[in-house]
């Protein structure tokens, strides 16, 4: 059971929120593969389908886009290729380019992840010219790159947990842990040589699924246990937070128990319809797609089918599912659907297809034809508005913004410090302090400029939030005479 930090400004606009159940993580940001280190694909918002509106569609590249990351008011997306020039972009929420990078003479450019103001991704080649790279999310400047072994492989987005970055890699297959703040390899554990996956991580272990489930001590890199399965290919494990891990492989949905080190159950849907794609988990319900386009809701503990939506088109579900408090989103080869969790009915669809991401009040579809489509969800920007703007302020005057810090976890949240990096922005509320679950505390930030001009900095909130121990809020103000 964990704590989780949320921040809001003025009208209680939440900057970050999450649900932790056991070790299940959910966040308003879509920060990495399936949103979080547990890969649950869960974003704790309630959607009104009548408010979903098309926002824009952009041609980002000429080939299939990678799964995207959404954080700090930007969408991060790779345009992979096969050797030659490949591109990585940061796109603003209005669809305009924030910054971009080009890579030449590399084999693979892989999907990005975000944490603590940095964007991480792997560029793949051979031997030691494969790198985990970290970029400043706002400027695109390279912070560091860590080389690691590889062999002409492709990877999914890095998984970040407590300032460490966990990735697939190795000359003959394996898992790496890197320090997320500098060029430093923590450890490497050799696994069967299969690419196209990323670990799932919780407080104890880093998990990989390459036909069987492997759990490695996340701090030491030593194998903790292995649960054998006659699997067919690598998949992304999904952590349930109840000593359970879920995987769809070979048409089966399997539940592994990490306390008994056994497979608890394996489910087929029916003789003509297999489970497929990447599942999602919300509020003790596992959501899975099928090869005939159905959405199935199963009890997390027993695996019993609770309900199902049948797709009359019978067009296979592809890629990943996204779960919210009210709806489940998924794509087939031709459409994106939203299924109401209460009525079990299709309430919205759109003629698009690809990898889905839901974050910061937007839904994004990264397609195989190089197009990125954005939808507004009818929510206020209650998620991570990375920039809190102050009105024009005369020098030596003071303007105050009230910021609410909320604990949406189920344990006490200890806020250790709140400070800015520029003396023009002063936090008037004392710290440290502790916030009980589901409670909040309002702090005041004063803009007290001494010189004329635009002044920018970050407000740094340090807490015991294990997913993001440092939350950054970008502050901006203009000082006038």
Could you give a quick summary of the protein structure above?
By secondary structure, this protein is an all-beta fold. Helices cover 0% and strands 51% of the residues.
List keywords for this structure.
single chain, 481 residues, mainly beta, six-stranded mixed sheet, five-stranded antiparallel sheet, 51% strand, globular
Give average pLDDT, whole number: 88
Taking all Cα atoms into account, the compactness measure Rg is 22 Å
Distance between the termini: 51 Å
Q: Supply the number of helical segments.
A: 0
Strand content: over 45%
Question: Structural class, from secondary structure content?
Answer: mainly beta
**Major sheet: size, sense and barrel closure?**
6 strands, mixed
| Helix coverage percent | under 10%
Outline the low-pLDDT stretches: 10-26, 380-385
Number of strands: 45
What spatial form do the alpha-carbon principal axes imply? globular
Describe this entry's structure for a reader.
The protein is mostly beta strands. Helix content is 0%, strand content 51%. It starts with a strand and ends with a strand.
Question: How are the secondary structure elements laid out?
Answer:
Blueprint: E1 5-9, E2 13-14, E3 53-59, E4 69-71, E5 74-79, E6 86-92, E7 97-103, E8 108-109, E9 113-115, E10 118-124, E11 130-136, E12 142-148, E13 159-161, E14 164-168, E15 174-179, E16 185-190, E17 200-201, E18 205-210, E19 213-217, E20 223-227, E21 234-235, E22 238-239, E23 244-249, E24 252-257, E25 262-267, E26 275-282, E27 285-290, E28 295-299, E29 305-309, E30 317-323, E31 327-332, E32 336-340, E33 346-350, E34 355-359, E35 362-366, E36 371-376, E37 387-389, E38 393-394, E39 399-407, E40 413-420, E41 425-427, E42 433-435, E43 440-447, E44 453-463, E45 470-480
């Amino acid at each position: 059971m964990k704590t989780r930090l949320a921040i809001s400004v003025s009208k209680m606009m939440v900057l970050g929120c999450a649900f932790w159940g056991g070790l299940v993580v959910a966040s308003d940001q879509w920060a990495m593969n399936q949103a979080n280190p547990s890969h649950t694909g869960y974003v704790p918002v309630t959607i009104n389908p009548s408010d979903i509106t098309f926002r824009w569609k952009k041609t980002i590249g000429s080939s299939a886009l990678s799964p995207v990351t959404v954080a700090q008011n930007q969408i991060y997306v790779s345009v992979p290729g096969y050797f030659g020039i490949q591109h990585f972009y940061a796109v603003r929420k209005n669809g305009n380019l924030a910054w971009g990078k080009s890579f030449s003479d590399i084999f693979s450019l892989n999907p990005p992840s975000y944490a603590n103001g940095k964007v991480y991704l792997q560029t793949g080649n051979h031997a030691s010219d494969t790198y985990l790279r970290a970029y400043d999310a706002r400027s695109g400047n390279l912070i560091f790159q860590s080389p690691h072994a590889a062999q002409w492989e492709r990877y999914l987005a890095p998984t970040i947990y407590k300032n460490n970055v966990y990735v697939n890699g190795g000359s003959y297959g394996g898992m790496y842990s890197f320090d997320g703040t500098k060029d430093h390899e923590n450890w490497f554990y050799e696994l069967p040589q299969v690419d196209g996956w990323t670990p799932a991580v919780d407080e104890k272990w880093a998990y990989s699924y390459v036909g069987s489930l492997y759990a490695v001590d996340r701090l030491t890199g030593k194998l903790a246990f292995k649960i054998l399965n006659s699997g067919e290919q690598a998949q992304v494990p999904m952590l349930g937070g109840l000593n359970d891990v879920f995987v769809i492989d070979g048409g089966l949905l399997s539940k592994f128990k990490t306390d008994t080190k056994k497979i608890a159950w394996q489910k087929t849907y029916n003789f003509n319809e297999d489970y497929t794609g990447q599942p999602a988990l919300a509020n003790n319900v596992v959501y899975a797609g099928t090869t005939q386009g159905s959405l199935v809701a199963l009890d997390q503990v027993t695996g019993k089918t609770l309900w199902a939506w049948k797709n009359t088109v019978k067009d296979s579900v592809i890629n990943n599912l996204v779960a919210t408090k009210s709806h489940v989103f998924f794509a087939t080869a031709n459409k994106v659907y939203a299924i109401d969790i209460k009525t079990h009915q299709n309430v919205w669809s759109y003629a698009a297809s690809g990898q889905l991401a839901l974050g910061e009040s937007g839904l994004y579809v990264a397609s195989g034809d190089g197009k990125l489509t954005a939808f507004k969800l009818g929510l206020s920007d209650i998620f991570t508005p990375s920039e809190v703007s102050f009105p024009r302020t005369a020098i030596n005057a003071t303007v105050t913004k009230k910021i609410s810090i909320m604990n949406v976890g189920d344990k006490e949240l200890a806020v250790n410090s709140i400070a800015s990096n520029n003396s023009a922005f002063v936090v008037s509320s004392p710290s440290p302090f502790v916030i009980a679950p589901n409670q909040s505390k309002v702090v005041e930030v004063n803009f007290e400029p001494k010189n004329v001009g635009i002044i920018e900095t970050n407000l740094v909130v340090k807490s015991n939030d294990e997913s993001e121990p440092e939350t950054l809020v970008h502050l901006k103000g203009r000082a006038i005479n």
